């Protein structure tokens, strides 16, 4: 079974559309069904769903707010929450697909050049740092 976290966000919504087009079965959860910062809640959902594949789309994405008033929530979701998902995935033998961001890089590549998997991360924002920590 496929489990999608952050299913009502931008990435989660698009992923659900793609899986629907392919007639794939999945369970889609958002914060109301599984607060990823709550380890016990995460474990309960994993026990119920028994996923073999997890698309971890849940994230704190308010880039500007992450620098100030949203800093604690940014860390809680992007670092602690991701850690909870990774631990549960490992415990239950599920493959984890983590969705990161180009904010883990410094943004200094010329326009039109894409980031590569082996490029050196150098986040310049709090959001980029927490997403990198989640990796």
TrEMBL record:
GO CC annotation: cytosol
Family: Belongs to the dTDP-4-dehydrorhamnose reductase family.
A Pfam family the protein falls into: RmlD_sub_bind
Protein name per the record: dTDP-4-dehydrorhamnose reductase
Pathway: Carbohydrate biosynthesis; dTDP-L-rhamnose biosynthesis
SUPFAM superfamilies in the record: NAD(P)-binding Rossmann-fold domains
Enzyme superclass (EC): oxidoreductase
One of the GO BP terms on file: dTDP-rhamnose biosynthetic process
Ranges of Basic and acidic residues composition bias in the record: 118-135
Segments forming domain RmlD-like substrate binding: 2-135
EC code(s) of this entry: 1.1.1.133
Organism: Streptococcus pneumoniae
